[in-house]
Prior knowledge:
The structure is a single chain. This protein is α+β, with helices and mostly antiparallel strands. It folds into two domains: 30 residues, no CATH class; 122 residues, Alpha-Beta Complex (endopeptidase fold (from Nostoc punctiforme)), CATH 3.90.1720.10. The strands form three sheets. Strands 8-7-6-5-9 form a five-stranded antiparallel beta sheet. It is globular.
Amino acid sequence: MTKAAHYPGNPAPAPARALAPVVGRPVIFTSVLCALALMAGLAACGGGRETVRASPAAPAPWTVVAPADPAAANAVLMRAISLVGTPYLYGGNSPTGGFDCSGLVNYVYRDMLELNLPRSSAALAQFQGPKIAPRQLTAADLVFFGRGGNVSHVGIYVGEGRFVHAPRSGGTVRLDHLDGPYWRDHYSGARRVLN
């Protein structure tokens, strides 16, 4: 009697009855032989041609740059991170109603440092702070995203390539990584607010 093997089109004989102990051999020896045969059979199931995918190259490590005012930067970070999970709301600027991207930035800086910043992401990109190279970011810097020179999104850098932001309708405030494909491709610069 034959049964189809694991892979279609590859018939293999199937045992008609259970294996009986080999006469004159101890049951343990027979069990070991059966286990070895089973392992050899399982090893053959892969077809013999396995391919190993190379893992994607890890991004370069992020430089740790100490903020000029560590206490202020820490206050901004802790407040921003505490708002992760708050719903997105276009035009929103409070934890009870929700946030859009610039509303989140404004709320955090006003709440923790009593600093009033411009309301839109484009206006924030023009704010008086110096422009910062991506690998020189420090905690509490503002990171901007857009296309063709137009800024349409802003977040607060928290360190190690991560930032907090309010991304879109239907979403919530969250942490993302600057090395993510979308954010890397739409990154348009950064500004340092704390000097």
